[in-house]
């Protein structure tokens, strides 16, 4: 660690210099450093106040976060004000700008590409595009209400109504995605306000929850323990290495499996009899009044679960029993959402952290779907998933313009740029 000297009898501000070996040690929960444009910042205490969430900045601890920083902030100069108090030094003069032997020329060429995109005004949104997009969502909602008013709720009308509402809600989902990525307005605050309205009032979800999950996914796509989209060990495992690691770690028996095992044992111990009260010592006769006292635990747990759990079960149950199929639009939309969002990631590499450069990491975990008017609309332009992951704040209507530059850069360095038809993408998810 070196120190700055003195000049003219007055001490200069002392500058500490660090090596990558020292910086990479500070990647713990209680000790987090990161590097942005060769400057070293200690974000340990500030991480909990990070607007994008604590985890997304923690995932970059001990690394060069320059490209991630540029990707997520639409006004890096403004954000520098918050970074200034966290500055603790710089990379030592002999240290490379990139950590872990990354290809420095590739990194520089990618940053040049980003500068070219900025000069081409590709980060400037078209008000007309997003106005028309919002307009077509509102038009679909109005059409749905008119159908109910004039056509009633017969089977045919209900089926058409479900398709219309599914379409409007799916498209509203893609629209909230735009605002969430700060790709519409020049000011972050305006994007945040509209995002909260669209996702909260049109979609019934939480903007903070979305930010917490989605930015982690973008920072480290398809990386175990960092991307929440692939951290679903209690449900299923993904990729080639995760199943092997889970089996070797002894975590193959999930709580769900243990619960079923216990249930099976109980059924074997207390087999069914003609008298239901004998089936299990804790199950009384149905004719006995339920006079058991409510425990404090139940009182503390059940009220908070009433709306998010019990009411949802009741809604689904009522829909099935009363044949109220209009609610099925939620199921159709969920189907639409899953296939569109996962066709770009699930068939790609899913593995542990490999500390790649920004371009290589994003392209390894994402693929594109062929461009067409329908594909653009159907996927909310997520058929340009590679460009979206490289430039999250770029308005989606400009992805096609930057695509040739990205493909050219990938070809120059032998980075595989994968693009496929929509049908093949769906088949690959099943595979």
From TrEMBL:
Query: Which is a Gene Ontology cellular component entry for this protein?
Result: membrane
According to its UniProt entry, this protein's organism is: Rostratula benghalensis (greater painted-snipe)
Regions crossing the membrane: 121-139, 145-165
Instruction: Note the SMART domains from the entry.
Output: Cyt-b5
Q: Which Pfam families match?
A: Cyt-b5, FA_desaturase
Provide the membrane topology annotation: Multi-pass membrane protein
Q: Which UniProt keywords apply?
A: Fatty acid biosynthesis, Fatty acid metabolism, Lipid biosynthesis, Lipid metabolism, Membrane, Oxidoreductase, Transmembrane, Transmembrane helix
Is the keyword Membrane assigned to this protein?
yes
> Domain Cytochrome b5 heme-binding, which positions?
15-92
Q: In which pathway does it act?
A: Lipid metabolism; polyunsaturated fatty acid biosynthesis
Name the gene for this chain: Fads2
Q: What is this protein called?
A: FADS2 desaturase
Return one Gene Ontology term, BP aspect.
Answer: unsaturated fatty acid biosynthetic process
Q: Name one GO molecular function term.
A: oxidoreductase activity, acting on paired donors, with oxidation of a pair of donors resulting in the reduction of molecular oxygen to two molecules of water
| Protein family according to the UniProt entry | Belongs to the fatty acid desaturase type 1 family.
The entry's localization annotation reads: Membrane
């Amino acid at each position: 660690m070196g120190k700055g000297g003195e000049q003219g009898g007055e001490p200069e501000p002392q500058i500490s210099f660090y090596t990558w070996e020292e910086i990479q040690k500070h990647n713990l929960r209680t000790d987090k450093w990161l590097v942005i444009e060769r400057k070293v910042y200690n974000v340990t205490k500030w991480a909990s106040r990070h607007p994008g969430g604590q985890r997304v900045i923690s995932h970059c601890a001990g690394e060069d976060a320059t490209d991630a920083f540029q990707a997520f902030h639409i006004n890096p100069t403004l954000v520098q004000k918050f970074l200034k108090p966290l500055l603790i030094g710089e990379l030592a003069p002999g240290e490379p700008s990139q950590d872990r032997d990354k290809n420095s020329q590739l990194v520089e060429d990618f940053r040049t590409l980003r500068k070219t995109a900025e000069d081409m005004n590709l980060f400037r949104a078209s008000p007309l595009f997003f106005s028309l997009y919002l307009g077509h969502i509102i038009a679909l909602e109005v059409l749905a209400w008119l159908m109910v008013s004039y056509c009633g709720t017969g089977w045919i009308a209900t089926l058409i109504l479900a398709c219309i509402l599914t379409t409007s809600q799916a498209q509203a989902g893609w629209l909230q995605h735009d605002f969430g990525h700060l790709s519409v307005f020049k000011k972050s605050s305006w994007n945040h306000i509209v995002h909260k309205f669209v996702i909260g009032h049109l979609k019934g979800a939480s903007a903070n929850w979305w930010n917490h999950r989605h930015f982690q996914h973008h920072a480290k796509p398809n990386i175990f323990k960092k991307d929440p989209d692939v951290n679903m060990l209690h449900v299923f495992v993904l990729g080639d290495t995760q199943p092997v690691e889970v089996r070797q770690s002894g975590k193959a028996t999930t709580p769900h499996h243990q619960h079923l095992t216990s249930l099976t044992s109980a059924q074997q111990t207390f087999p069914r009899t003609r008298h239901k009260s004998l089936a299990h010592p804790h199950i009384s006769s149905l004719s006995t009044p339920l006079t058991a006292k409510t425990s404090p635990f139940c009182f503390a747990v059940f009220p908070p679960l009433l709306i998010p759990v019990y009411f949802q079960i009741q809604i689904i149950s009522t829909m099935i029993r009363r044949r109220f199929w209009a609610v099925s639009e939620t199921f159709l939309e969920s189907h639409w959402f899953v296939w569109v969002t996962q066709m770009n990631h699930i068939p790609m590499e899913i593995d542990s952290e490999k500390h790649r450069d920004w371009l290589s990491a994003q392209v390894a975990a994402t693929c594109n779907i062929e461009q067409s008017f329908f594909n653009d609309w159907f996927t909310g332009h997520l058929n340009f998933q590679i460009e979206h992951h490289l430039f999250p704040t770029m308005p989606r209507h400009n992805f096609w313009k930057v695509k040739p530059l990205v493909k050219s850069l990938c070809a120059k360095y032998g980075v595989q740029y994968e693009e496929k038809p929509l049908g093949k993408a769906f088949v690959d998810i099943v595979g």
